[in-house]
Amino acid sequence: MATQTVRKPYVRHRSAWWWTKNPRYLLFQVRELTSVFVVAYAFLLLWQLWALRSGPESYDAFLQMWYSRPMVIVNGIILAFALLHSVTWFAATTKVPLFRIHGRPPPVALTIGIYVAIWIVLSLVVAKLLYGVP
Amino acid sequence: MAGAPAPKPASATPPPPPRSVPPPPPKPAVPAPKGSSKTIKLRIGRYRPERSAEPFYQEFTIPYRDDMVVLDALNYIKDRIDPTLAYRWSCRMGICGSCGADVEGSPKLTCALYLKDLRKSPVTIEPLANFAVLKDLIVDIEPFMEKLESVNPYIVRGDEKPIERGEYRQTPEELELYRQQSLCINCMLCYAACPVYGHDEKFLGPAASALALRYEMDSRDQGSEERLAAVATSHGIWQCTFVGECSVVCPKHVDPAGAIQQLKARAATRLMRSMLLPLSTR
Ligand code: SF4
Ligand code: FES
Question: Nearest C-alpha to atom 6 of ligand 1 is from which residue?
Answer without folding.
Answer: B184
